[in-house]
Amino acid sequence: MKALEEKLGYEFKNADLLINALTHSSYANEARNGMSSNERLEFLGDAVLSVIVSDYLFKHYPNIPEGELTKLRASLVCEKSLCGFSRELELGKFLMLGKGEDRGGGRERDSILADAFEALLAAMYLDGGMEIAKKHVLRFVLPELKKKDEAVFKDYKTALQEIIQRNPEESVTYILTGQSGPDHDKLFEMEVHLNSNVIGKGVGKSKKSAEQMAAKQALILMGEEI
């Protein structure tokens, strides 16, 4: 367990929580000694994960409407993402599985790895509190979010440019109007100008994503369907 704690960068005060998080139902059923599986922790971890990711997206993407926030959150906490996080931690080799599940490749099964990540998160939350849990989640989520940040909104600038090009005398420019936050977690504010008129404003984790949000606002103001 020490090896896993080193990967986590966190030492449990209550080691039983860590053991419980790593105990699959197949192992608990075979042991028949009253040992609990990680299913209850998985239930709690799912809720903690949702709160942490929702809170981060709400605070850092103020211009994104609810529907898009929901889609973005879903992409970050889906089974594919969670099992990927587990593989980064090599969590599979620390799991306690029943003999049949182990022989059947359970240590590499996506559903088991995703559930284990949530159970481990809950154990860290119960042992160390929300700040420890948040630090753990964002360690994995932020790199994924950075990959998605520009892709999620990639069409807005193109759509705006296509409209503007219908009138050759018109031109659009993007102007950086402000930035805030520490170097590792900056927010950028951009304006899009049609000739000299401001037609949209946007905020994002990068200049490009802020430009996309500014373009989106411009499209909405122009009555375009988004």
Features:
about 230 residues, about 60% helix, mainly alpha, three-stranded antiparallel sheet
Biggest sheet statistics? 3 strands, antiparallel
Q: What are the low-pLDDT stretches, counting only 5+ consecutive residues below 50?
A: none
Give the proportion of residues in helices: 55-70%
Radius of gyration: 22 Å
Provide the β-strand percentage band.
Answer: 5-15%
Element string (H = helix, E = strand) = HHHHHHHHHHEEEH
Number of strands: 3
Distance between the termini: 50 Å
SS field, number of helical segments: 11
Going by helix content, strand content and strand pairing, the class is mainly alpha
Task: For the largest sheet, list the strands in their spatial order.
Answer: 1-2-3
Topology:
Layout: H1 2-8, H2 15-21, H3 25-31, H4 39-60, H5 66-77, H6 79-88, H7 99-103, H8 110-128, H9 130-151, H10 155-164, E1 172-180, E2 187-194, E3 197-204, H11 207-221
Antiparallel strand pairs: 1-2, 2-3
